[in-house]
Amino acid sequence: MPNPLLDSDLRTPILTGAAGCALAGSFAGSLLSVVRARPFWSFTLGTAVNCGMVGFTYLATRTMILQEQLERQREAGYIPHATDENLLFSSAIAGGVTGGIWTGALRGPRGVLPGFVMFALLAGSGQWGWTTARRFRQQVIVASSGSVRSNETAWDVFRASMYQQWNDWCFQMGQRIDWLPMRKMTATEYRTHLQERLALVNAELEDLERELAAAT
């Protein structure tokens, strides 16, 4: 996987996000220190460092996974573009990795799997909610500009868009998981399948022609 920390364009958002997490952690830590009657500066600084490290781990992992998907698009001859499915997959896996690492560090090996599952669900749900809100906002703008049919509302267009997004995500996951018993075939796989069937039919026709020639 590409290392996002070696690219300044990728490194800056990661460090900025980690700093934001640390700032939020310091604010939360200061409040908790007052509520729980703990030493103010040590509790605030400790919470800030922990939140900053968690934020850095999540953002760096998410960026790394997302860049790997964009690299695959380049290798396939496509223009690299982060789709909603790419963002959802990257966020969920990055959340799971981050949760597994930190819960494992705090609670031991038994906390790795529960932490992975819980944080993957949280990160995936957060990304899905953000994508849903952004798509709905786009559909409202499109509807207000008169770019949809008169009998369609922004909600109708948004619902159809989300249905298509769900189908695309299921298709992408089906392509990633090789052991699924059923999955949608790609155009290349379908073309190969047709060629194999055509070769089989041609072989059967040749056998019939030989049998007819032998019979006559």
TrEMBL record:
Name assigned to this protein: Tim17/Tim22/Tim23/Pmp24 family-domain-containing protein
Transmembrane annotation, as ranges: 12-34, 40-65, 86-105, 111-130
Domain of life: Eukaryota
Source organism per UniProt: Thamnocephalis sphaerospora
Keywords for this protein: Membrane, Transmembrane, Transmembrane helix
